[in-house]
Input
Amino acid sequence: MERVAVYPGSFDPITNGHLDIIRRGMRFFDRMIILIAYNPNKSGLFTVEERTDLIKKVIGDEPRIRIDSSSGLLVDYVKKAGGNVILRGLRAVSDFEYEFQMALINRRLDRDIETVFLMTGYKWFFTSSNLIKEAACHGGSVRGLVPDIVLHRLEEKYSKDRSGTK
Output
């Protein structure tokens, strides 16, 4: 049986911490779907299309990885996509409680889908998309925390905001 993992997240934007989980996760799975999970009633810094484009540029031409998006129930997506594992990254104990609750409800909704956790690499322990956006918004350097293409796109977005044009 092919091992297909779905790695869900907002990826707004994708960080080097996300890439660490993707690279390490690919050691265990035959294929991976990076799933941009979004709420259509909320707006992110980057549109779903922009996030997809950034991830494609960062991942490159990796035939075992597919990028998709969904606003629905995660277990429904995983089942329709032919997946059998939800891959999640853990940074700190504070992540664990939320992720544990999500894993339990997903397990209750579909007992055939497992959740697998990978601890983030120590370099990315404090990295989150929200913290990166917060720092970048105020002109702080996030170099080294995100891929260069993401860094440039953040700088473009926030320089427009600071100049008053959107």
Remarks:
- The chain has one domain: 4-126.
- The two ends are 48 Å apart (CA to CA).
- Residues 36 and 49 are 10 Å apart (CA to CA).
- The beta strands are 4-9, 31-37, 65-70, 85-90, 114-119.
